[in-house]
Amino acid sequence: MKWLFLVVGVLVVLVGLIAAIGVLLPKHHTATLSARFSKPGQAVWDAISEPPDWRSEVRSFETLPARDGRRTWKEIDQRGQGVTYEAVEESPPMRLVTRIADRDLPYGGTWIHEIKPDAGGCVLTITEEGEIYNPIFRFMARFVFGYSGTIEAYMKALQAKLGRGSG
Q1: What is the pLDDT of residue 12?
Q2: CA-to-CA distance for 110 and 97, rounded, in angstroms?
Q3: Percent of the chain beyond pLDDT 90?
Q4: Nearest Cα to 49, choosing from 88, 19, 9?
Q5: N or C, which end of the chain is more exposed by having fewer CB within 10 Å?
Q6: Where are the domains of the chain?
Q7: What is the CATH number of domain 2-162?
Q8: Going by DSSP bridges, is the β-strand pair 95-100/82-91 parallel, antiparallel, or unpaired?
């Protein structure tokens, strides 16, 4: 029984330490990643602006009514968790800015997708301007998952769909 109290005590101290470090970390972060595609910019635009059937982590996709004239949708992940997004800016086929429209999540932010022509294809650069409100999630993002993990998975899935460019 003494060991049980010791283990529980250590876990409480560890979670408290993680939360304390998380409080000291900034809520806002920026992460950027670029990838080259052998397809033209319009093909990349079509993939990123239409239903994400190419992303394995998205179980389903639902188009929602527009908000203030902006396109909105909901993505449901494999665990059944949904996130609502809003297209803040759309300049086909060069720039798409999306924002998490849910206000009750422990995180939020925008993704800026910029597509630039390149010899024989294009380069997609995604910049995440994110916020993590929960200090424990902030700690995990900074020290465990990394700020660019979601962008990396997204790019990998998009490259699988469209083909990786050279270079």
Answers
A1: 85
A2: 7
A3: 82
A4: 88
A5: N
A6: 2-162
A7: 3.30.530.20
A8: antiparallel
